[in-house]
Amino acid sequence: MTARPTAPDSTSETTSDVPDAAAAADVATTNDAAAAAAVPDVAAELALEQAHVDRVYAELEKASRRAADVEADGLARGRTSRTGDVRDEEMTGLFERDALVYAAARRRSMIDKQYEGLVFGRLDLGTEQSTAAEREVRYIGRLGVRDDDYEPLVVDWRAPAASAFYRATPVDPMGVVRRRVLRCSGATVVGAEDDLMVPAAPDDLVVLGDGALMAALTRTRGRQMRDIVATIQRHQDEAIRAPSRGVTEITGGPGTGKTVVALHRAAYLLYSERRRFESGGILVVGPSAAYTAYIERVLPSLGEESVALRALGDVVDGMTATRLDSPEVAAIKGSLRIRRLLARLASRTPAGAPTTLRAFIAGHAVRLDEPVLRRVRSDVLRGHQHNLAADAARMALAEAAWRSVRVGERDAFLEAFEGSRDVDDFVAAWWRPLDPRELLLGLADTEYAYEVSRGVLEHEEAAALAASYRDALAHGSWSVADAALVDDLVARLAAVQVVEREDVGFYDIEELDNLAAYGVQDVRAGIDRRVTTNSQVGIVTPADARARLMMGRIERSSWYAHVLVDEAQDLSPMQWRMLARRGRSASWTVVGDAAQASWGDLAEAGRARDEAFSGQVRQAFHMDTNYRNAREIFDYARDVILPLVPDADIPDAVRETDVDPVDRLVDGADGSMAQAAADAVEQLLAEVDGSIAVIAAGRWVEQVAALDGSGGGRVQVIDPLSTKGLEWDATVVVDPDGITAESPGGVRVLYVVLTRAAHRMHVLRPA
Ligand SMILES: Nc1ncnc2c1ncn2[C@@H]1O[C@H](COP(=O)(O)OP(=O)(O)OP(=O)(O)O)[C@@H](O)[C@H]1O
């Protein structure tokens, strides 16, 4: 039997020999279980693999039952009834083994059947000359399983013993003769694809299919990203298993697997240093809620659930933001100069605070006027965060009051000041807890915005900022850029401190009588949110947008042991600072492609990013193979970006469909664009089996909105910026020039849009 090249890999020399998409599709079909019956070799091979997979599942069930029994019987009984036959350490070893396998069984139950196979790979190790008896067979899976004799039935894909599965190439076979990828449906083996690592297969070794990678890439895309654990390529594996310390940067053009590699890296870190990363936590941050929904299955499919997955608007605990500001406002809120404005907001006397302290203390009339109070405030804030400083403020007031009197006993005066009800009332109003959100909403008043931004923002910028907070109040929703501002203010002020008794969030209201005290204006039956109370269930609707904006409690940031940032090129400097607060002692994985950036000032963002990494060592990995787009689609996108961004990082697209994108001029008649988009969608529904996106410039959105959800839910209408990081089988791009003109990143955003389709793309241009 002759050898066939392995799947494409930027590090191997066989990329040009990749079979075309049609051939790969044939492979996928011939390997179906049904088809397999007609091909004796395949059927026999699959039956052999099935026998092993059955053994693995049986072992897991057995171990799970045994471990449950051990738990029920109790460890102690095992110890006290031990005889000379079982030595202590043997006993402990058995328990440890059971505990390990039990943990594996639990993780297996987390890996839902739909995640395509607990066992997905097999290595035959030996040489071209070795016989079946001489070759070692090693199975690779989503987790490790051992049999009763502690022999491995499956090796966890992240274990060192599995690395040859990903690293072996014909140039450097690492002792591998044949690498086999198994395709399973639940616990049933339905197909296999082989890559041969030696020039010719030994006579007794069957080689199936035309390579697993092409089969995987040709498959239909769903609404959510899939893991690539069975077909990770060598250069991807190097990034996945890179040492955890410092900063790991993964760059590359569109569709090069940066995201999926970074997610597998998170799973690898949890495996290789579980104690550190599970207890310290891993934070994964992506651009949007659509993105987090898209990738949220990948880590659970690898058996890992202990990762915090957040969109940029959800990074601050207690706050959810999805709305996008206009590019001008986003630029103001994202740039570091806004910090001066925030510093002013945090140190100003809050609106409505009393301006004079009058009290009768130890027989003396005390009066402190505004200038003195202002001085006291700024002295206190020099050493404290506002929300932690009520006591310090009171002491400073007492000193100022004493200095204004200086008659009688100082200690007696201070004691009287401390016990004064008048002072209590004054401090409660003058130094009330400040919620950062309240300070930002104060900017909705244009005059106030002018005042606090003097010397920081231009007049028009301050007006735009004020308008953005009036928008927030109109919508009852924060913008994504606001999250970083709230976070900055929390760092300055500290979170609002809540006394235990008053620790009442919107959803935990204790007395329905007193809802107004918690910002809830309206209580009605039968609608909206459910609130459980001590003895009754009430239904609460926040009556106005302000209440919605202030809902929940903003918490101080948690720290993580590792922070993974995707689409890092889009983070504003303020967003880098927000992440830096969560990654003070973290290692980082940072994923991005500058040519896809929608943030304007890359230099300022670069500095903020360097600061976040605080001088840690860096290692860089570059991905140069585009696994997403058919070559015809990527060529189209490349021709758009290169003239305008000549240094764009252009990857090599490895899959061809022989179908060029459709590029159509649509006349300006009313309804023509809607009709053209509907026609394109209809054609694509017939041509691809999976997901389709209609991505339209703002002015066309209404016209194409009706397509959303059509095709039995396969069609999604989405705005250009929200497509970051996502992909579909086919896309319809409506008005590319309009997308460029309206987007903060201009043609870079259009480039993102044009690189989302795996198999087909239609581009509609208004004439
Ligand atoms: N080794 C692989 N095996 C199978 N599929 C792969 C492999 N590597 C990448 N892919 C697929 O390629 C597609 C693109 O991957 P991914 O979204 O991670 O790329 P990206 O570099 O983050 O893209 P972009 O920057 O354009 O958002 C996904 O469908 C992913 O599953």
Automatic annotation (TrEMBL):
Annotated ATP binding sites: 252-259
Keyword Nucleotide-binding: yes
Record keywords, A-Z: ATP-binding, Helicase, Hydrolase, Nucleotide-binding
Domain (UvrD-like helicase ATP-binding): residue spans on this chain: 231-630
Signal peptide range: none
Keyword NAD in record: no
Annotated region described as Disordered, given as residue ranges: 1-22
Pfam family, one: UvrD-helicase
InterPro entries assigned: DNA_helicase_UvrD/REP, P-loop_NTPase, UvrD-like_ATP-bd
Protein name, per record: AAA family ATPase
Source organism: Ornithinibacter aureus
Taxon lineage: Bacteria, Bacillati, Actinomycetota, Actinomycetes, Micrococcales
